[in-house]
Amino acid sequence: MNTVQIVSTEVLSDHWYTLRKVTFDYIRQDGSTQRQSRECYDRGNGAVILLYNGEKNTVILTRQFRMPTYVNGNKDGMLIEACAGLLDADSPEDCIRRETEEETGYRITKPERVFELYMSPGSVTEILYFFIAEYQEVHKMNEGGGVEAEEDIQVLELPFPQALKMIETDEIKDAKTVLLLQHLQLKDRMKA
Questions:
Q1: Is the C-alpha dihedral spanning 109, 113, 117, 120 positive or negative?
Q2: E strands of the chain, at which residues?
Q3: CA-atom Rg of the chain in angstroms
Q4: What is the C-alpha separation between 132 and 106, in angstroms, rounded?
Q5: Are the C-beta atoms of residues 96 and 49 closer than 8 Å to each other?
Q6: Rounded Cα distance, 132 and 111, in Å
Q7: Maximum pairwise Cα distance, the chain
Q8: Tens of pLDDT, residues 111-166
């Protein structure tokens, strides 16, 4: 049974991504119909990966400026996070291979998909595809840092226990990164 009927959609902004106001009729559990409006931010779907090295017990993370965190109290706007990017027209696997090399400098061939999640379903349409991949020094093709015209990314190689500790000390506050670090820990892929 379809419980939602879209009445109207209005584009509020399409400067960076698309913000729409959607008005809809929703059939509630008691059978009554209620008209509601919600704003939905559509930035496309994305992929994220955590590179890890089991021998060295290290992970590769990135550090970059994130304006939304800056306006919400992050003093310098810098955020430590796992490598990620938008799918654009690519599959999640192709996207994450491209983003990994652009941002971290490492070329991976077989990312392991672990799950897919809505990260902020109350307002953002994005589905994020989560991956992990083991890296070795022979996979390093360049210094990374992102696409120069768009990004200024610092690549960090951290001991896994230090990365976990950085969650407790609020040095890592990015949800997708926390999820992937904890995934490696839960699956006993790394030594905490």
A1: negative
A2: 4-13, 18-27, 33-42, 46-53, 58-65, 78-81, 83-86, 112-118, 127-134, 154-159
A3: 19
A4: 13
A5: yes
A6: 6
A7: 62
A8: 999 999 999 999 999 999 999 999 999 999 988 887 776 778 999 999 999 999 99
